[in-house]
Design a protein that fits this description.
2 copies of one chain form a homodimer.
Chain A lengths: L20 H8 L3 E5 L2 E4 L1 H20 L3 E2 L5 E3 H6 L2 H4 L5 E4 L5 E4 L4 H11 L8 E10 L14 E11 L2 H22 L3 E5 L10 E7 L5 E5 L6 E3 L20 E4 L6 H8 L7 E11 L5 E12 L6 H5 L9 E2 L2 H8 L16 E5 H4 L4 E7 L2 E6 L10 E3 L18 E15 L1 H5 L3 E3 L5 E3 L1 E8 L2 H9 L1 E2 L2 E2 L10 E5 L6 H16 L4 E3 L6 H11 L3 E5 L1 H4 L3 E6 L6 E4 L3 H10 L1
Parallel strand pairs in A: 3-7, 15-17, 17-20, 27-28, 27-29
Antiparallel strand pairs in A: 1-2, 4-6, 5-6, 7-8, 8-24, 9-10, 10-21, 11-12, 11-21, 13-19, 14-15, 14-16, 18-19, 21-24, 22-23, 25-26, 29-30, 30-31
Chain lengths: 581, 581
């Protein structure tokens, strides 16, 4: 490609609404152009990256035996009503009526449509397993779309769906996808981690996220540097503390803590470690009657150490929390504790509540909690002596750096990541809802065991940039760069030799199958280099009159601080050598 | 590809709603699956065809210097309001509101968005010409979607848009697209015609349709077998008749024609050629006041020969018809003619009307028309003697087979076609509406001269089938076949030699870069052959125990009545030879 034949459009300044670096750089490099909130045109430079990502994903999906199709973007509501998602999904689901006032959705995913295809196509166990995928435009009507392609409303996703005859076979299909994902992610040239994720209400352990590591990522990735353990924060288990609870050594004392309603404030006032304080979280679970009204509410008191955060996914799995939970209202709190929030604790309750202690809280001695009286806390609290042993002890908290690794092979570290892929064993959730069955060897209908597998095709370039950039711009990995090599002649209009040498090198690299661009725009050197550094093409060869007279050209990788002089005749071979590595 | 790893799903019967053969065969061959009215999943077999079509189009667009981008499917209403299309377009434009009740459309084309990009990106004449294109999902909410992919609601289109500094440059851009379209259509392997089309209100002659020739096509293509003249029916000019009007030879006579209200009935009753009768079409044009209400209506009488049909596009270009026209109401007709339709004519009017005669009517003598009295016609009517010469003579009619070709090089013939591509010089229609300008050499803002260029990517396979099928199924041209070659081993499970020979041939063709499928499903020969004949793979090699014992396999093109025996060792070379042609 010659630059004069392409659309290169760089900006000095990022738009005011671009908060993250990938959004800033993709806009400045002319890769995306905003059309509306969360809606972007993929400009020619950006589309090249997206197409390379899609091509790698497609190859690895095909290699893994998945079969490509394309389901409609606009889907009739009927199938979405079969699973209940038409009603259950919030306003993220973009709903439309056509000219005949029939309901449709703009697909955010395609579980319903693909399950409908499976129940029509896969009549017999002999046709299984099958994996169908598409690379397709999707829409999620995010309330506050931002961060460019990181959280757009319209986006491109690869979504695959596997159909198996039984859980054992579904496991194999799932593992084949896990392997295909690793193969694709290895090819992208990004640092990433596959982390265990919570599989929600389905149960089982078969869910993994593929996280591109970046300091700016919104997800916390938990991993063990001395083993291969990795999980997301929702999933990572906080092990039970080793060793028994120390013996009580202090008396129970009501201590004035005027105006100190947080654990941190209390610890500071009393000059004790935050780890000796306990926070009281009051939750409620509701029982509904046949009409869907609340018939009865149960109040729960969750106790966590002052330095720990509650993990909602773990709490959601407590016995009794199957139908969901909520934070208690202030009225409920006052009724049970006789006190407003900020000074709550498990002693001197007005009405009984169910107490659940985090594992770490259950082994504390001489701890501190609210006195259920404004401006007072209790110190020297001890289980068994001052209050009954907790009715339930559970893992309620997010792990923190330094916690023991669940695999027993070290301690946990935390880094930030951007979720780009998610693979998920679905079981029969959708096949049951849609009565999607095949006939087994005995001619008996069985529900499909399903899995679903997504990769955010348009999100990946943004994540790659969050991981790979510097003050000058983007630094693409070779595999997904818009162009792999740029040839930059300096003032070619003034030097026919420079022009000829640049065109010769361009032709040689093109003939060798390299995705090379020749900058024949006639820009001045400073502007030309700034453009390519911003756009982030990884390999650059500069051809100038001064060095060419000595038979030299200059090679510079986007990460190199200095250029490397090369004999002009060796340049093509040198670049090809760089690309092979 | 091995068939066992692919999704092959054929049906004996077409669905009841499939009216046209392409819809029937694509459904039966498992290429598409209906999800809703006019909304189809492109199943794996169909997607392969669509992808091949798209790849050819993309290559030819790139070769012509067009640059690919991807504009959003869901587009904010604001830009569509700038051109007025948000209001003007009918219910075909699918409108949506997002969660914040902002208006959006699902794009049917992208003139507004691409013009918005151009006015931001192309600031200077130095950046022109440019051509931007996308291959993208589109939606038109057809009132009565039908015919499968021929007239779907959701479909894939290639849409390109050119931006030029002046009309002369726009002509060059237009011609480059015309050439790229011919190159792509030549590669598809279909019989087609590029026909001149009417360019509507824009004026000028720069509009061509690319029509795939098929007896079932809904468009009439006019062409001259002895020259390269070709146009669609709207566009093809009916030349003025040669020679002068004959002299009047019969008296004007009022003739009873009870119950005969059509020219055909009258001609039959009076035993005269239909060509001597004249039909009276009463039209109205409305003048609107500032409030958009009808202030005044003008009544027009159009006279056409009884054997000719009115051409609405030509009539729309009459002076006075710039703001559109309509058929007159019965009340208007009675007021002006004193008679209900069926017996109308230009003589004995109650109120004056403007008379426009078709060129052929203007040279008639002794003609027949309605007497403006029920059950009576006039015969022996003559211009000048019985009524004034027509105020206006124009080409009002569709051409018919045998008319003189407008290029003077023969007579016209008519065949049927399916419109797959349309290229169009837009002028400044959109750039003016959106105030999209660039700066010329003098620093003065100028409106972009635009063109737009579409190819129906998902419609093309349907058109290909309408042109190429037989009683057994589809017959694909090589370039867009889902697979180019199928290798069919007969009962491979019973003969290891057959299995080995089939796998060897498959591997050889694969290694030679052929898009080959090996049918390893273990189907019985009859079912296997029926599948591939239905699916329409053009080249088949059959390997059976009986012939293999004699060292032979059998080649058969999908159009061949008989198979050709080949030495097993020559099979790959033979097939490759067939593909090269």
């Amino acid at each position: 490609m010659k630059a004069s034949q392409f659309l290169i459009s760089t900006l000095k300044e990022a738009p005011a609404d671009a908060e993250v670096v990938s959004h800033q750089l993709m806009t400045r490099a002319g890769m995306i152009k905003k059309l509306g909130a969360g809606i972007y045109t993929y400009m020619p430079m950006g589309l090249r990256v997206i197409n390379k990502v899609a091509a790698i994903v497609r190859e690895e999906m095909n290699r893994a035996g998945a079969i490509e199709l394309t389901m409609p973007v606009i889907q009739p509501a009927e199938l979405w009503q079969e699973t209940g998602r038409f009603e259950k999904m919030g306003p993220e689901l973009l709903r439309i009526q056509d000219r005949h006032e029939r309901d449709f959705v703009v697909q955010p995913t395609s579980e319903e449509v693909v399950t409908d295809i499976a129940r029509q196509e896969f009549k017999s166990y002999k046709q299984l397993p099958r994996n169908l995928y598409q690379i397709q435009t999707k829409f999620r009507d995010e309330r506050r779309p931002r961060f460019g392609l990181m959280r757009g409303r319209e986006f491109i996703m690869k979504d695959a769906y596997s159909f198996d005859r039984d859980p054992a076979s579904a496991q194999i299909s799932y593992q084949a996808m896990a392997q295909a994902y690793r193969a694709a992610f290895d090819r992208f040239g990004l640092r990433y981690r596959a982390v265990a994720a919570d599989s929600g209400a389905i149960g089982g352990d078969l869910s993994e996220e593929f996280q591109v590591i970046a300091a700016t990522g919104e997800d916390a990735i938990i991993y063990c540097p001395t083993s291969d353990y990795a999980a997301n924060i929702e999933k990572a288990e906080a092990l039970a503390p080793k060793g028994p609870r120390p013996a009580a050594s202090k008396p129970l004392t009501k201590t004035p803590t005027p105006g100190k309603s947080t654990c941190a404030d209390v610890a500071e006032l009393l000059n004790v470690p935050l780890q000796t304080t306990v926070k009281s979280l009051v939750l409620a679970t509701d029982e509904l009657n046949d009409k869907g009204e609340v018939a009865k509410s149960q109040i729960w008191l969750l106790l966590l150490r002052g330095d720990h955060d509650m993990n909602e996914v773990k709490v959601g799995k407590l016995p009794g929390f199957e139908q969901g939970f909520r934070f208690a209202t202030e009225a409920e709190i006052v009724a049970h504790f006789g006190c407003k929030p900020g000074y709550l604790g498990p002693l001197n309750l007005k009405q009984p509540v169910r107490v659940v202690a985090d594992r770490e809280v259950s082994v504390l001695a001489d701890w501190i909690c609210g006195a259920n009286e404004v401006d007072f806390h209790l110190t020297g609290v001890n289980w068994g002596r001052d209050l009954p042993e907790p009715a339930l002890v559970a893992d309620l908290r997010n792990v923190v750096e330094g916690d023991l690794s669940p695999d027993g092979k070290g301690v946990l570290a935390i880094e930030r990541g951007i979720e780009i892929g998610h693979i998920f064993y679905l079981g029969t959730k959708y096949s049951k809802a849609m009565n999607a069955t095949f006939l087994d060897e005995n001619g008996k209908p069985q529900f499909f065991e399903m899995g679903c597998y997504g990769i955010g095709i348009t999100r990946l370039p943004a994540a790659a940039i969050e991981q790979n950039h510097d003050a000058k711009g983007i630094i693409w990995p070779d595999a997904i760069a818009p162009f792999t090599v740029v040839v930059c002649p300096i003032n070619p209009d003034r030097s026919p030799e420079v022009k000829t040498a640049a065109e010769k090198l361009y032709a040689e690299l093109l003939a060798a199958g390299v995705d090379v661009i020749l900058d024949d725009r006639g820009e001045r050197p400073g502007a030309m280099f700034a453009d390519w550094e911003l756009i982030g093409v990884p390999h650059r060869v500069t051809i100038g009159d001064r060095t060419l007279k000595e038979g030299k050209v200059e090679y510079q990788h986007r990460r190199d601080a200095e250029a490397t002089p090369l004999a002009v005749g060796d340049a093509a071979a040198f670049v090809l050598g760089k690309l092979k590595r």
